[in-house]
Design goal:
By secondary structure, the chain is α/β, with parallel strands linked by helices. It is built from 19 helices and 15 strands. Keywords: Signal.
Length: 421
């Protein structure tokens, strides 16, 4: 009997080979340690029988530096996430990133739904990354904090066409207790979080040709933070850095009325809900709406998060199947199920979004078609963001005039231009 069973199994194996059935092709893929990303990978692995993604996880706080170290060291990998969009420029210069145009054509991958992000994935006319996460910054708000202060929620002002940066400052002051127990808003420590009014204006900071492009909107952005810190309407930058307080915890603790942050935050709210981390308010007690804006046409800001194909991969077709799935309609639904804004919206994806957001208004603003701007998608971009934080810290601790601030920014930008190859 045992011999008969073994013979049958052998025959089945041989028959499978004759029909073209084979084991999945394994690709090595690097990402950072957000558990929802592993969920996306697991869903892909379970969805088909051709490719298996072996996910290698790096801590998020070290990701940018470690992925560059791994690439420089020739570590075996087929594809990887690019956490900071502007890092693609040194990756291309050093030959780590594979141009994708030929694979896009060979696999007949439809780039149409990703057209809005074309400028953020293209260098010298060639596509070097596939976005799987879209990006937009929003005003997230705690309805209970607004109710306790007797102040209308931000969506009320959006509907009236009044949600400007001046109105944001006014509301933040109204919400704040003044003693540091309740803050009106959280503006995080990143350079990009300080200059959203300037981003919306459309300045380039430093152009791709190495020219400084700034105006008074940058000064206005810095002055806004300083004004709000001085009256304890927002958590001071120095305190956030000294205590290493993450924006998510500060919002979850329920002592801040607003948070200005990106489109990934609903995923973090889902995690907080599931883990019981929301303190003093529930899933129904928060919402999101547009970012404050002073421009005639509403604009938000942000660059997409993309995947890159390693130029040295020996399994480019298999890796592209994964990257294109993640950026396509099936992947978009899974990305949205995990609380991230996908790089494309279809009616099916919007249905998924409805289940990951707290109310209809939030769904409307999350999925509306808006202009996305960013001024630093070029080789200077990563350095620009870092230098903006340095200048801001100096500005917050001094009595710089507007002219002195502009001169300081120009000096820092000139240094970037002179030291960037």
């Amino acid at each position: 009997m045992k011999k008969c069973v073994c013979a049958c199994l052998l025959l089945m194996f041989v028959a499978g080979l004759s029909l073209g059935v084979s084991a999945k092709e394994t690709i090595i893929y690097y990402l950072w340690d957000d558990p929802t990303y592993q969920n996306i990978v697991n869903t892909f692995n379970a969805s088909q029988d051709e490719v298996f993604v072996d996910a290698k996880v790096i801590p998020a706080k070290d990701y940018e530096s470690k992925i560059m170290t791994l690439l420089a060291g020739g570590t075996e990998m087929d594809a990887y996430m690019n956490k900071r969009a502007t890092d693609i420029f040194p990756m291309v210069d050093n030959g780590y990133a594979e141009p994708l145009d030929d694979l896009i054509a060979a696999h007949q991958f439809d780039m149409g739904p990703l057209a809005g992000y074309k400028e953020a994935i293209t260098i010298d006319g060639q596509v070097y990354a596939l976005p799987f996460r879209g990006e937009a910054y929003f005003t997230y708000f705690n309805k209970k904090v607004f109710e306790q202060a007797g102040v209308p929620t931000p969506d009320t002002y959006v509907e009236k066409g009044e949600w400007t940066w001046a109105k944001f400052a006014e509301v933040a002051k109204q919400l704040a207790s003044g003693d540091g127990k309740v803050y009106g808003a959280i503006m995080y420590i990143w350079g990009s979080s300080q200059v959203m009014p300037a981003d919306q204006r459309g300045i380039s900071y430093i152009t791709a040709d190495g020219e400084i492009d700034i105006d008074d909107s940058l000064v206005h952005s810095f002055k806004l933070r300083k004004e709000l810190e001085q009256v304890k309407a927002i958590i001071p930058l120095a305190e956030l850095k000294a205590t290493k307080t993450h924006y998510s915890k500060a919002f979850w603790d329920g002592n801040s009325g607003m948070l200005l942050i990106g489109a990934w935050f609903p995923g973090m709210m889902l995690t907080a809900k599931n883990e019981g981390s929301l303190q003093g308010f529930t899933w129904e007690d928060w919402g999101l709406t547009r970012l404050p804006c002073d421009e005639p046409e509403y604009r938000t800001t942000g660059l997409p998060t993309s995947n890159v194909l390693h130029a040295d991969s020996q399994k480019k077709d298999a890796a592209f199947k994964f990257l294109s799935w993640m950026s396509g309609p099936e992947g978009a639904k899974v990305v949205m199920q995990n609380g991230f804004m996908p790089a494309m919206f279809s009616p099916e994806v919007k249905e998924v979004a409805a289940a990951t957001l707290p109310d209809e208004k939030s769904l409307h603003y999350y999925t509306e078609d808006t202009v996305h701007v960013t001024g630093w998608y070029n080789k200077y971009g990563s350095k620009v963001e870092a230098e903006l934080v340095k200048v801001l810290e100096e500005y917050l601790m001094s009595d710089m005039t507007d002219n002195q601030l502009m001169d300081t920014i120009r000096a820092h930008f000139e240094e970037i231009i002179n030291t960037t190859m």
